[in-house]
């Protein structure tokens, strides 16, 4: 979401020169560039003005640390100010009551129903809650069926309702069911409109009064830029919102919504939707998002994602196998591909690594997920013996494997070559100084133009 903004800022903030102090003169041009970058990212004008004023006030006259260059010192100040504007720290859900009730509000097309399913999955898997979802959208055709289908997909219960019922009677029955069956959380999906109008606001206000929810979350499309912040403000004036969920944050959004919503509404962004799949919901951490914007990566989120998705037992078995000298066969390689897909693919992982923003963009353009699919199909087309001994594949076996997987011979040869490289890397991992060796190997094999940020190196440590 923050690609253009990140590119502009990471280049601009390293151009500051000077020695002992940050002054009005040596940051003037950079502040102008930062201002333009934020406006191009569709950040609301009052937010941009406030941000620039805060940065200037913090920066001018500040002594430059001996450990940092002036540009690095200024980058640190911008990072802190970005974090403050987006809310300082992660605001979690306040789940009060038995059951705790969460009301989802927003315009039509913002992705409320999908977000309800994502949040239900988040609460079930990560918070270990028993969740019931219900739709009171009696206007949109098949809205209730859509929620029922998604609820089945994420493994939660959906309260049955029909479009001929009144929202008030659906809510009353759902609340009664949730109490009787001891659900921890009741998630309520409401109807949207194409724009903010009196009918929408009066209905949602009546629903809120009846529910008295512990959380009222406004779901907004990040692709709408600063309009997202303005719509959030209109809803906030009609409803006592407790937080915001940004959807479609993985799309071609310029990032303005994330920087504007908190400042304009005073309400924290609690989650970001990062894709269409039901597990693509991230808790919003302002400090981590600020790091991503400035090209400094987001290692904490990457570690949390790895802990959540990777199979530790399989990883331990593989490490033991390699250490014993039993090699790294194509069965193991397929397992690694599947694990990577679980973590959102190569570009998703790279963008969370410091200085790897450029590589993430190139990885996305080159379509690595498509290549992963080819590799997996090729390995699936082999016999167990061929997966264990790929070096013994002859011409006829290769032809059969390619025909069975619908791929070309060059695809198979590329797979074998990449597998050999992976084998060498796995051997290095068992030696002393494995991580350093691996990093040197990666840097040596890095294609031109994929060196991350302008300077070619990692950003400073704060």
TrEMBL record:
Q: Reaction(s) catalyzed by this protein?
A: GTP + H2O = GDP + phosphate + H(+)
For this UniProt record, give its keywords in alphabetical order, as a comma-separated list: Cytoplasm, GTP-binding, Hydrolase, Nucleotide-binding, Ribonucleoprotein, RNA-binding, Signal recognition particle
- Cellular localization per UniProt: Cytoplasm
Query: Predominant location of this chain?
Result: cytoplasm
Identify the residues that bind GTP.
106-113, 189-193, 247-250
The keyword Cytoplasm belongs to this UniProt entry's keyword annotation: yes
Q: Where is the SRP54-type proteins GTP-binding domain?
A: 268-281
| Similarity section | Belongs to the GTP-binding SRP family. SRP54 subfamily.
Q: What does this protein do?
A: Involved in targeting and insertion of nascent membrane proteins into the cytoplasmic membrane. Binds to the hydrophobic signal sequence of the ribosome-nascent chain (RNC) as it emerges from the ribosomes. The SRP-RNC complex is then targeted to the cytoplasmic membrane where it interacts with the SRP receptor FtsY. Interaction with FtsY leads to the transfer of the RNC complex to the Sec translocase for insertion into the membrane, the hydrolysis of GTP by both Ffh and FtsY, and the dissociation of the SRP-FtsY complex into the individual components.
Q: What is this protein called?
A: Signal recognition particle protein
The species this protein was found in: Marinospirillum insulare
